[in-house]
Design brief:
A hairpin with a 2-residue loop joins strand 16 and strand 17. The protein is globular. The chain is α+β, with helices and mostly antiparallel strands.
Length: 359
Amino acid sequence: MPAPRRQFVAGLAALAMLPAAPALLRPAPAAARALLPDFADLAEQVLPSVVNIAVLSEQTTTQIPPELRGSPFERYFRERRGAQQVQGAGSGFIIDPAGYIVTNNHVVGNAVRVVVSTQSGTELTARVVGTDELTDLALLRVEPRAPLPAVAWGSSGNLRVGNWVLAAGNPFSLGGTVTSGIVSARGREIGAGPFDDFIQTDAAINPGNSGGPLFNVAGEVIGINTAIYSPSGASAGIGFATPSDLARGVIEQLRRDGRVERGWLGVAVEDMGEEQTPGGRNRGVQVRSVERGSPAARAGLRQGDVVTALNGERIETSRALIRGVAGTPPGQTVRVTLTREGRSRELAVQVGRRPSNPG
């Protein structure tokens, strides 16, 4: 289009005819440049501890043609066509030079073979030590010939919205990739489960980044990249990481026991609505039902009770109550403060072991 082109060229000519470059066009002074983040040293420091994970898993096909069901050919169909090998990729990070590696549960899935590749190109077969579906975490173990470079945990509780962070991992199987951004929000609930407490970041996270670390500027792991919100399937600037303060305890249990045991009361609860509380504030969690024979039933909790504190700490949401109980070792006794018929009382409840599919 001739006219727009002439205008563009004229604009460049006019710019060239200006006297000495105005302040907006001059290079930023050294003091201003010093305020801009430079992640080169940080990336060089942490990347050796970040690994790529290749997974070979089996996906079972259960669709048997109706005409083959009950016939001698059904078994043949299941054996020959019922299992398919599926390849996947993800990220992880080394937390112990002896070969312990953290990643996401959904990365390893039903893996029949897991191969870890370090930044130096070394490939090591990994063993799944344990997984936790509720927090989407997994711990792997490799047997290296020499100590591996490891990174330290940081405290996600010290994060502030606006802090710089660095994400590292294996997006689209490219490997060795870092992206930077800030903490966009904390305590995000995205419907992944009862322990949702995600860090939201605008650091680019893409398929393959799952299980990779989110670093603070000190080079400490403060999150595990887990999910993204994206209409296209690629980064839209909204990524979510499991906070290190939650992940660290889970990983320690997996390393020690190979599984995670959580406390359980056996109650169904719901948040108190604003219309149910004086002043329109949430002042407790209401018990909707109590499972027969559960720890809560044995301790005397009833439907309609409003739980206001656990071990003296105020409880305002059902999610906070679930997390507090889940973090209590089975067999330990907790103090539950509640309101019943307008009167406050306290019950001692011996926490049970959370079943696989709690009621």
